[in-house]
C-alpha cells in the first residue's frame, strides 16, 4: 500500500519529535541541565503547565495550573508568573531529594493541526527512576508545540497521573501513531 503525502509528513514529524523529546529533551531533563531543558520551550513566552490527577489541590479534580514565563526573572515578575529558570531549579532540587537518577520518555502519538504547519501536540509517557534503578513515578503528558526557527518548542504542557485521567480529558481519535496509519 502506497503512503499518502500526509502520512509521509506525519512520519517525518514523528521522527523529528521522537529525536527532539525522547532523546534530547529526556537527556537534558535526566541530567538536570536547567538551560538545556529550558531550551525546549518557546523563549520569552507565557507558558501554562496544567497538572491533572490525584487531587492534592483541594480543587475537586480540576487540577493545578502553574504559570511560568521563559524570559527574564524581572519580566516574569511583571507578568505575574514564576520564572521558568526558577521553576526548573525547584523541580530539579525536589528530584535530587527523591534520589532521582534518570527518566525514560516515550512518544505515544501526535496531533497535527492540518490548518497550520506551525502547531502540533505531542502525547508522551514518562517514567522516573531512582539511583537504585527503581521506577518511582510515572505519568502522561500532552505538550503543545510551536515551530520557531525550524524547531519544535513547548508552549503549553498538560500532565496526567494516569492513562485513565488522560483518556477522560483528551479526544484520542485526534492522536496519530505510525502503527495507526491515516484514517
Keywords:
183 residues, alpha/beta
Strand order of the largest sheet: 3-2-1-7-6-5-4
Count of helix runs: 5
In the CATH hierarchy, what is the class? Alpha Beta
How far apart the termini lie comes to 14 Å
Q: In one word, what is the shape?
A: globular
Work out the radius of gyration.
17 Å
Range of helix content: 25-40%
Quantity of strands, as a count: 7
CATH topology (level 3) name: Nuclear Transport Factor 2, Chain: A
Structural class: alpha/beta
Q: SSE string, helix = H, strand = E? A: HHEEHEHEEEEH
In round numbers, the mean pLDDT is 89
Strand content: 25-35%
Contiguous low-pLDDT stretches (5 residues minimum) are none
The figure for the number of domains is 1
- What characterizes the major β-sheet? 7 strands, mixed
CATH architecture descriptor name: Roll
Protein name: SnoaL-like domain-containing protein
Amino acid at each position: 500500500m502506497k503512503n499518502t503525502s500526509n502520512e509521509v509528513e506525519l512520519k517525518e514529524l514523528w521522527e523529528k519529535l521522537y529525536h527532539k523529546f525522547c532523546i534530547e529533551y529526556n537527556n537534558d531533563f535526566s541530567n538536570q541541565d536547567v538551560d538545556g531543558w529550558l531550551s525546549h520551550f518557546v523563549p520569552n513566552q507565557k507558558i501554562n503547565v496544567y497538572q491533572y490527577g490525584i487531587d492534592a489541590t483541594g480543587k475537586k479534580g480540576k487540577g493545578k495550573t502553574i504559570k511560568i514565563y521563559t524570559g527574564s526573572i524581572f519580566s516574569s515578575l511583571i507578568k505575574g508568573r514564576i520564572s521558568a529558570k526558577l521553576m526548573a531549579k525547584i523541580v530539579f532540587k525536589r528530584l535530587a531529594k527523591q534520589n532521582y537518577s534518570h527518566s525514560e520518555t516515550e512518544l505515544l502519538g501526535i496531533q497535527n493541526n492540518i490548518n497550520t504547519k506551525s502547531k502540533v501536540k505531542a502525547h508522551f509517557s514518562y517514567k522516573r527512576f531512582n539511583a537504585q534503578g527503581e521506577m518511582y513515578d510515572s505519568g502522561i503528558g500532552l505538550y503543545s508545540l510551536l515551530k520557531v526557527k525550524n524547531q519544535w518548542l513547548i508552549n503549553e504542557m498538560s500532565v496526567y497521573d494516569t492513562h485513565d485521567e488522560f483518556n477522560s480529558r483528551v479526544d484520542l481519535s485526534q492522536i496519530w501513531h505510525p502503527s495507526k496509519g491515516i484514517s
